[in-house]
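Worked Example 4.2. Consider the chain below.
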Amino acid sequence: MSKIIPTISSGLAGPLGVLHLPRFWQKVSLDGVAKLREDYPACGAGFDQMTLDALGLDKDTTIHYIQSEKPSYFAFEAWVSDNMKADADIDAHNAAVTGYCHDDATRGEIFQLAGLDDENCSARDAVNLNNYEDWSEFHQQEVLG
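Applying the procedure from the previous section yields the following structure tokens:
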């Protein structure tokens, strides 16, 4: 069985309103059962760590909870709500996620993978560019083999 490329966008939030949290949960969940594609980190230094830091969650504790308890997304959000810092600024976190842009080299690599260029795509933000990369990788792996 092929490993799974996560396609939940960092631009999505669950009922708690935290952008990227559903994607983080999916990646850590997949990694816990050895189904996350190897070039996707379960918990990387970018949006994953930004989200944990914004919520005041310990990385190892959070990963352990997801991988040992295997909660539904909504059970995970309830756990986050019970364990996050009281003064978490979700609006500031969401603004940081939506406002983050990749450098020109990374954008160029993603555009090349997706068959896009500066003339036919105006996206510069990391959320959209990461979506383009995920969709292109998924298509190449699952459709083209």
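The two ends are 12 Å apart (CA to CA). The chain has two domains: 10-100, 101-145. Compare this with Example 4.1 before moving on.
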